[in-house]
Predict the 3D structure of the following.
Amino acid sequence: MTTLTHRRNTSRQLNELIITSPLEPVTLTDDHRLSLASRFRAVAGTEHRRLDAWAVEQAGRPSTPFHWSPATARRVLGNASLRRVTHEPTRSITNAVREELDDQLLRAASGRTRAGSLASWLARAPHPVLAVVSAEAVNWTTQVLEVARGLDDPFEVPASDAYYDVATARTTLRGRRELVVARDNTRIIVRVRSGAPGKSAGPGLRADLIIDALAHHDGLASSRIIGLWPEAGVALSVDGTMADLRAGARDLVRTAVVQRRARLAVAA
Amino acid sequence: MNVVDALRGDRAARPLANTTSAAGLRAQLEDGIYAILGKQNPTAPLVVRASSLRDVPPATDLSSSALGRLRGVLLTQLLRLHCVGERIDHAFDEAVEAWRGDGGTNDLLGRLEQMDNDERARLATDVDAHCVTMTRALGPLSSHWMPRSAVRASQRLAAGNVVLRDVVDLMIGTNAAGRSSVVLLDVTTSPLGESAERAMRYHALVETLRTSVAPWRTSAFSTATGDLWALDVDHELLARSADEVLGVIHDLWNAQ
């Protein structure tokens, strides 16, 4: 049986969710990985597949082509700025965002970025758009920092999202995460989302949960994943139980199946 | 003293954060909505915005209404630029560029594209004047006040049958301090009136429901007159806003 808990997004409720997380973490074995890989291999495809919680929440429906905008850039820049602020707490959020933006522009100027990357888009964006990008990133960093400062337990801002390449299945899984809270021998993942949670928010969290466990070198699942929707003031959480991990894996495979069917329909 | 200094006031005089009102307000709204809707479900969720609480503009003056909205949208973009310390030299052009980069295309942007040179020049002069008033009044925003602009909120009530949506133009301060220090500022290009006061209360209500902590102050600044109105947020103000929201929901339900 899967789990899903609904709470208000307050420091007290968030700390309660962390304190009450399961103490015995689940570990994924090589058999689990092999089983998942064989299921993905069974869903043959001509292109490399990239799956994440968003694809699961959209039930594999094809989304509009991705393009950079202040809204799509805010998480990348915001989280990088958050790392700067947490490493040096005297640094202001606005300055951290500005430094991150400068770094991106420098990377683009040095020619070390590929076409279509955030840095190359920023390098071509006019000044007013860069300012709106900064404003969005400041909003993002502020809201995640407010969450982080309310935590009673030590936390870290991960250097990147969790990625897992499924062996010989031409599939990459991406699990997003904003904060990782350390508690005893376990860890709890905190994800921050825009907007309000929909009916598929639970499956989305389970997808992030299983991808994070697969990406862990020992297959150790986090004991709980907490999704925060600050705009809606809502916190949802899913426990790191084997049932939830299995459900997350099933949803990812189903999403791959739906995507393949959609591609076949287009090809026909 | 500029607007933000005036709003931030004396740090020592700030009260403890009000963390107890949110639950009662939510219950007041849920009970009130049940009294209006009963067990029926609207065909689409009833959406309440700050604009729902403002006065209805005269229906005959459609072009100036669209111009007013354009001016408001462009000034909001300029506020975002000012918030991150961007120097504004050509207010109109920079606002349009920021808007295009931010939101893509919409009807209002289409209206802007269709304007002839005279109309465009008039709007540009208007936006320039409002921008000068705004930037002079606000002054530089210190990054230590944690200013953020266009802060969105969305609250679902009555099992999703009612949605309260809001965008606060400028928010400063933080809830993490234990003391009440969040200030909300609504920047408008219209003169302030009774409806601006209702919008100020609405911003405070939605922020309280969103974070479960009442903000310290809610305020409105008019770039047309340079007036600043500020209200300290207490339970009475929030409960009054909840009543006003229920009034809007009643009207929306009857219109369905």
Remarks:
- Chain A has a mean pLDDT of 93.
- The CA atoms of residues 149 and 157 of chain A lie 12 Å apart.
- The interface with chain B takes residues 8-11, 69-71, 92-95, 97-98, 125-129, 131-132, 134-135, 138-139, 142, 146, 149-150, 195-196, 230-233 of chain A (CB under 8 Å).
- The longest strand of chain A covers residues 186-192.
